[in-house]
Write a structure and sequence with these properties.
Layout (H helix, E strand, L loop, with lengths): L2 H4 L8 H20 L5 H15 L6 E5 L5 H8 L3 E6 L2 H10 L6 E5 L5 H5 L6 E7 L9 H10 E12 L8 E10 L2 E10 L6 E5 L9 E5 L2 H10 L2 E7 L25 E8 L3
Parallel strand pairs: 1-2, 1-4, 2-3, 4-5
Antiparallel strand pairs: 5-11, 6-7, 8-9, 10-11
Helix pairs in contact: 2-5
């Protein structure tokens, strides 16, 4: 039993297999929703912050962990990077291959990022950088990945990841709208109510309203999320908390958009290894 499992006595052995099965079931729906360029959540929040922290250079070899249908892999290739995209969902990798042009410098592979041995077969000191876009909260374990990255990355390499913000966008928050009087006028104010944060939890959820099968969210507070990285020698080197602009339209009152422009739904982190 590893540290992450020890902190959660209810850790079942089949979580990883169940997560894999759910993403295979939901792959076609997810691919149709995200398409070639992603949704606004990806385009406006995740991608710009990740690219700023990553600082892609032409010729960089980058590992895209949990690549899904290849949205970020294709973007990185368009910036001149050579990309290896991995995902444990065979169906998502098939979608990624189907959306990728032959000239793109991308190699896709079905690989479980919780399997340290399989990760290391990608080659030590093989990557200038690694990314994981909105994937770690879908992984039953993250410690094996962090351990493997200490060997997969070249000296001075970095790991940039994004997750649902553990403080403000975890499975235990509620969006709240309240009417209040201000200067003789009625205003609607939106806020976030947080019921749980500090304890790691496992819950079922729907990323898309029409997905065939719920998938599993593995909530980790920031101290545990970064703690796994610090334990193996990573240091925090950059951080962004992107939110939608105030003028961004809201699909409905209680949805991520302009009503919550002061509350970031995403956390984006850059990690680097301590110099030897």
């Amino acid at each position: 039993m590893n540290n992450e499992q020890a902190r959660n006595p209810d850790y079942p052995k089949n979580w990883n297999q169940e997560t894999q099965a759910s993403w295979n079931s939901n792959a076609l729906n997810w691919d149709a929703k995200m398409g070639d360029d992603g949704n606004d959540f990806h385009r406006l929040l995740v991608r710009p912050a990740t690219e700023r922290l990553l600082g892609v250079k032409v010729g960089d070899r980058i590992l895209d962990i949990g690549c899904g249908n290849g949205i970020f892999s294709r973007r990185l290739a368009s910036l001149g990077a050579k990309v290896v995209g991995i995902d444990f969902s065979e169906q998502l990798i098939a979608c990624a291959i189907g959306r990728t042009q032959a000239q793109d410098a991308i190699a896709y592979q079905v690989l479980d990022a919780t399997n340290e041995t399989a990760l290391l077969e990608l080659g030590e000191n093989s990557f200038d950088a690694a990314i994981s876009a909105m994937t770690l909260m879908d992984m039953a374990e993250i410690a094996p990945l962090f351990r493997a990255l200490t060997k997969l990355l070249k000296p001075q390499g970095c790991f940039v990841f994004s997750v649902m913000h553990p403080c403000f966008n975890n499975p235990h928050i509620s969006m709240v709208a309240e009417e209040t009087e201000s200067n003789g006028e009625i205003e609607t104010r939106c806020s976030i109510k947080v019921e749980k944060y500090l304890q790691p939890t496992v819950t079922y959820g729907l990323a898309l309203r029409n997905q065939p099968k719920p998938h599993i969210y593995f909530h980790r507070p920031i101290n545990l999320l970064l703690g796994e990285a610090f334990r193996v020698g990573f240091v925090l080197d950059g951080l962004e908390e992107p939110a939608f602009p105030a003028d961004y339209p809201n699909n409905y009152l209680l949805s991520w958009g302009g009503n919550f422009s002061e509350i970031p739904p995403v956390l984006v982190v850059r990690l680097k290894l301590l110099a030897a």
